[in-house]
Specification:
This protein is mainly α and about 210 residues long. The protein has helices at about 1-20, 25-55, 60-95, 100-115, 120-145, 155-175, 180-190, 200-205, 210-214.
Amino acid sequence: MAGPNLIQTLLYTVNNLLQQEKYKAALAVLKGFRNGAVYGAKVRAPHALVMTFLFKSGSLKDKLKVILKATYTHSRNLASFVFTYKALQALQEKIQGKSLQSHSFLAACIGGYLVFGDNNSINSQINMYLLSRILFALSRLAVEKGFIPQPKHNSFPLFASLVWGIVLWLFEYYPHTLQPSLQSSMNYLYHDSNTWHDVSDFLIFNKPRTAAQN
């Protein structure tokens, strides 16, 4: 009987603590860490699963290790960044007594340097993903603030044309400059499709099964 009562008491105490306004900033940092870990795992696990089984060779055990390592790294890094960012934001607000736009920028700069400054494949993918998003966002903000005029015509087709033209030019002539996973994807799409031996590796498999296993 004591067991259920103890659990109920513990839950009541924890829930009461979570409602305390004076602990809200610290608790938000902890929940940010939790959300970063969960989101990082949810995003990376399926991506690592697909990319590993499509492009990596080796035993099932080796492939699972690669998937778990990538998922853990992404989850850990995102959790660490969110924890650092929110903690530094809360600290700056407490010191200055109010929230400023510079707090967000400074906290994220420090967190980015500490967590995503290590040049590895996971961090490289995340940083490049964000770069493409902020370039879009800054372009929209520049129009919104009146720094550049609103385009009179739909500029998206020109944008798409330049993106694909540049990336395929780089891939064909300077592939070493592209990120490895992008190289693998493009090799599969554009170079592997130049070679086949019979109907099996023309329609069913990308490469002959004996070659794929080596």
